Amino acid sequence: MTPKKLLVVDDEQDIVDLISYNLKKEGYTVLTATNGTSALEIAKQELPDLIILDIMMPGLDGFEVCRMLRQYPQTSQVSIVFLTAKTGEIDQIIGLELGADDYIQKPVSPRVLVARVKTILRRMAERVRTEMIVAPEMLCIDTLEINRQNYTVRIDEHESFFPKKEFELLAFLASNRGKVFTRDSLLRRIWGESVYVVDRTVDVHVSKVREKLGRYAPLVETVKGVGYRFKD
């Protein structure tokens, strides 16, 4: 299973090093940044699963970084944990209202921080499973019919064969028209957390789905640098 990718953001290098060391010991892939601008660039390029974010930083502070991350489609769903010396209740409320998953006050022991990170990642995985929208038995888009009951696809009344994963990928995207899904989220939703497959697997399956969709192929859109969506 691909290790979770975490981004640690703090303007104090010793804190970044300490947190990174303990997270790497747990098997996570760790990226780092020491200012808000770099954090935004890395987040958009690397699409981490979780970001540990300081608030009081020169330039863009953590609140502004969080606000901007939530505005970008590719990072709007990433988990964010504020780790900060700001202890005021108002600051905590602001952080959580901005969409943070947790607000942790410094100082905190590395063991406690790692435990909180694990809890959030478990919660995120569970949310992915429970929020997955199951396609109705029959989806009809013009003359394209997707039948989940018998795993068949008909185009202009002609049946086309889709292997199970290709069918599930098509049915899931078509059931969530207009919504963008990253390759990683599609891997988790279609292949599951316990199966090791690479991002390229999604690209190959999308390519095969498009070939079989014929004139409906443009409905499966590539969102550059993010993933795929079914045109609304």
Please characterize this protein's 3D structure.
With 232 residues, the chain is an alpha/beta fold. The chain is built from eight helices and twelve strands. It has helices at residues 13-25, 36-46, 62-71, 89-97, 110-131, 164-175, 183-191, 199-213, and strands at residues 5-9, 29-33, 50-53, 79-84, 102-105, 138-141, 144-147, 152-155, 158-160, 181-182, 220-223, 227-230. A five-stranded parallel β-sheet has the order 2-1-3-4-5, with helices on both faces. A hairpin with a 4-residue loop joins strand 7 (144-147) and strand 8 (152-155). The mean pLDDT is 86.
Topology:
Layout: E1 5-9, H1 13-25, E2 29-33, H2 36-46, E3 50-53, H3 62-71, E4 79-84, H4 89-97, E5 102-105, H5 110-131, E6 138-141, E7 144-147, E8 152-155, E9 158-160, H6 164-175, E10 181-182, H7 183-191, H8 199-213, E11 220-223, E12 227-230
Helix pairs in contact: 1-5, 2-3, 6-8, 7-8
